């Protein structure tokens, strides 16, 4: 009887708890909806949001469709803005170029903070250039600038060409088996080796490069995964991979300091950086001051990882779109081939010099049009550190994540913006790069504008110059093959499948 009474009591408690739990869930749902609508104000957006998760499932399932829907809402409303909700965070999508410019221009503690990814601080770690503000940020950018001087870029160009040619040789050997050859993953592998060679040069052993590639792949997977920071989840593996990558790059900085202190000549980006860093450390020591900020080895490793992240997937995207565009526009391909042939021959046995790269004005215009027409990093997430009045009628609430759309800006202002037209950056009478500069946001704007944009464009120019000179190619075109998909930057849906054949009589070797 006692056991029956106890069981009956437990059942009564459970029965009484059910209405309470239902009421609690309903109250949470109501509070969340009210909070969302208060923040949304007049912006277009879903009328109701899934508790806590919001629209994260459709975003992960089909990022292209999700962000296209945000852009369509913003355009239909005429506001240039749209609202939504992701994993407990209110978000604002920005389509209008001038509003995006306002965000880029107001990166400071009491306005917007650049985060690079909705959960970037957890993923990238603390030593990251994008999270810095004010004079500290300006000072670090000043010290990084020599890494992209003409002298440094000339050193990198020779390294880039050797890696590109080695990979093109592998692509041709692979294509000998017949069938279309999707180049997205091979481009990513080529860019990873290029970044390793240009940024860390002789300081990465073959084993370190192998582990580096594994950890970077974990990072890439984690970028697109649910942000669950628990053992066994892709996000946790990505975070751990980034920590190992930063330690590895910090060790490269330490070895470079030793080599530069011994009088070595710079062979890679970290050498150019450490050469100037050692001078500043010695000057501080002589003056009785502590070492300058941001000269710790592992902290430098974190900054070098920033460059790697910025260069890797964005460049993969641009190379794929360049190949697709050249195949789609044979007249552009013919002009690029003619310009390159007038300056360099595969049989020369020499790399393309920095001077010759600068002389390839039409090929450079093609590179800029590739980046405009298909900007790799389509969105640049920021978080509102404080409430910010973005327009006369809308204030972004504190804590909201804002997504300025670089992609949408690229199709505003420019005449016939949907067309792939390098002449807009080549023809002196048009000068659309000047006339519509505020719409060309592929490299950002304001205090956090990309420091390495010249390096990125040089890499694209070099790849196109070498590719069209040593390879005959034909795109395998299927329905929807050029639809953009997020991987995490945008790439052709089919991975840019091409048929390849050697074009030059003698493959370059230098």
From TrEMBL:
Keywords: Heme, Iron, Membrane, Metal-binding, Monooxygenase, Oxidoreductase, Transmembrane, Transmembrane helix. It is an enzyme of class 1 (oxidoreductase). The keyword DNA-binding does not apply. CDD domains: CYP61_CYP710. It comes from Urochloa decumbens. This is sterol 22-desaturase. Its cofactor is heme. Belongs to the cytochrome P450 family. It catalyses: 5-dehydroepisterol + NADPH + O2 + H(+) = ergosta-5,7,22,24(28)-tetraen-3beta-ol + NADP(+) + 2 H2O. The keyword Iron applies. The chain crosses the membrane at residues 13-31.
